[in-house]
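name: query_chain
kind: protein
chains: 1
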Amino acid sequence: MVITYLRRKFDQEKQHQAEVIQYLRRLEEHRSTGRKVNLMHAYTALTGDVVTEYSFPASYGLLDQPDFAPDYYELWMSILNGSPLLKQFPWIFPLMSSFPLWFVERYLPDLAVTYRWRKTWAEQIHNIKVGNDDSEERRGRPSIFETLLDSDLPPFDKSVGRLAEDAQTLVGGGSITTSLALALATYYISCNKSVEARLMEELTSAMPDPKTPTPLVELEKLTYLSAVVLESLRISYGVSHRLQRVCPDQAITYNYYVLPPGTPISMTAVHIHDDPLIFPDPRTFKPERWLPLETEGARLQKYLVAFSKGSRQCLAMHLGTAELYLGLAGMFRRFGGQLRVVDTVRERDVDTVRERDVELTHDLFTPTAELDSKGICVVIGGN
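structure:
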């Protein structure tokens, strides 16, 4: 149901293009003043507005807020910081939900942000449920949660508490993973002049006017941009956490091993995307490894698991991929050759150079750099 909804709704990409235009307009403001841009804040504002526009009767308007609403990004980092604890002790959150807010803020401060936002999502869904917020009447199309509430799902699956949990998964997954891929891609492209030059040449030919949006279907035909998108997904992993799968009623045979029914099986995308036997020199951003797309690209996509695989793969994978096409095309057609990376620490570690603000050093469900990182920051217009 949600997959059908996302595909149908994304056929109307006008709103998404408008959000990319607004994003680029905000970057123009920073270019005119010389202020630096934290790419994680900026891209999370973009992806957050896109996913909340889909999910609720209205987006959160993050792109209109000062400095790209850094509190929204910090919200998700706070939630992710608590994920290892909640993973091992899943009973904590239901228990916490029964406490008053003052108690959680005083005795469980690391989880208080999660608590407050779960209450916010519950209120939004309650308002939709009782008819206080109707986006179909206002915009001519329903949101995801309006669609779910109007469906024939069992009553429990349409309860406010159940859908608030879905809201956290949907909004968080749609905000942070895609923004990380966009930020890392922007960093690596800006630091590699040959990659940037080749991408800009292709975009200039396909988009003669940098301020006129190009339809997604046309961007998807661009060979090098497509290779950049694939490499961005590979190097950002999607999620770094091990996503368990359980076969409840059948034994699974793997080589000489027989795994009994009910055995959790998991693997991190990091081990696949960083396997040098599959992707030589894996920590180097090399879009060329996917070319030609029809042969080598098709072969390597078997090992691309940023959206997972099979029946449990990401519901919004087409939306996330579209955001990469539209976001990177807009960014580098408008500001290509003008992005200068600042405040990004390079640290020599034995015989390798490790970008401390870029490389994965923590698994907080999503890949996370050093906890004291200042983020990936750029100045637009510098040489």
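note: DSSP finds 17 helices and eleven strands in the chain.
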